[in-house]
Fold:
Amino acid sequence: MAPALWIELCSWIIVLFGIIDGFCYAMYRFISNDTTEYDMEFLWDNKFRLKDLELDRKKRR
Structure:
C-alpha cells in the first residue's frame, strides 16, 4: 500500500472514532442528567417526597 493510502486510512479511522466518541459522550450526558424532578412532576404528580421514594439526594451521592 502506498503511504498516501495509509494516511487516508488512518484519517478515516480517526474520524470514525471521533464520531463514535461524540455519540458516546452525548449518550453519557443524556443518561447522567438527573431527571428526578421530571419524574416527580409527571410520573408521580408530586404525590410523594424524595424521602418517601428513597431518592434522597444526600444518600445517592
Notes: DSSP finds three helices and no strands in the chain.
